[in-house]
Amino acid sequence: MSDMLNVKGLSISFGGLKAVNNFAINIEKGQLYGLIGPNGAGKTTIFNLLTGVYKPDTGTILLDGQNLTGKSTTDINKAGIARTFQNIRLFKDLSVLDNVKAGLHNHHTYSTLEGILRLPRYYKVEKEMDEEAMELLKVFGLDGECDFKASNLPYGKQRKLEIARALATEPKLLLLDEPAAGMNPNETAELMETIRFVRDHFGMTILLIEHDMKLVSGICERLTVLNFGQVLCTGPTQEVLSNPEVIKAYLGE
Ligand SMILES: Nc1ncnc2c1ncn2[C@@H]1O[C@H](COP(=O)(O)OP(=O)(O)OP(=O)(O)O)[C@@H](O)[C@H]1O
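That is the input. Now the predicted structure with adenosine-5'-triphosphate docked in place:
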């Protein structure tokens, strides 16, 4: 199996603090992978490094063999990394459909002039986008709410919409930052099914940060545990979760 994501020697400091120190990870294509660790361990900072929000002090990031180190957020998104955020970020006043279409805009193009003049190509592209967005919404069971304002959806569905929008950019790697945060047990159980489905249906490679151990042990095949910015342990999920050092540093909290 080939690596979809290959990261080596990744570090960044904020002032005197080494938030991420010599981080490495290999994720195979189609793998469902978890990044866990105590609060402040550096997990979100790693997502910010992988997506170009921060530039690493050292290290390399390869996506499907392509070197993304030091690239901008836009270039990295185009190259195939999409993410969701710890605090949901949707276009709250836009419809559910338009939120997904905002993701599709990455690869459907008409010129600004074609758009302003409403030239035929504009209508053709808009129609194709409507259809594609609806297909994606169906996958998430959100097609019935396509005209709702995003902010009027219940919390669990907003999370799903955020994932749908990320998938609309046709990523090679999907990063989910605490997808179950703020969810009740029913919503979490449904979310687990959705994430598993996204992997199976789209063959998606997924890296997720999560504190909910039920979700982590339920769907992740491999884990990397981060502690004080450093990798404490990497391996198959059950092996990692029964590692005494991991229990001491994290699970025993
Ligand atoms: N832009 C920044 N400037 C200064 N310090 C930062 C910055 N971003 C993160 N940090 C620090 O880096 C460390 C790692 O933070 P990070 O948010 O990555 O942790 P985390 O593992 O995602 O935590 P949580 O589980 O609470 O979300 C923290 O000490 C944080 O305060």
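The mean pLDDT is 90.
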